[in-house]
Amino acid sequence: MNFLELAQSRYTTKKYDPNARVSEDKIQQLKEILSLSPSSINSQPWKFTIVSDEVMKRSLAGVSYFNEPKINDASHVVVFSAIDSVELFEEQIRENLPEGAVQYYMTFIKPKPEAEIKAWLQHQVYLSLGMFLSAAASLEIDSTPMEGIQADKYREILQLDNYQPLVAVALGYRDQEDANQPSLKAKARLKTEQTIQSI
Question: What are phi and psi of 52, to 5 degrees?
Answer without folding.
Answer: -120, -20
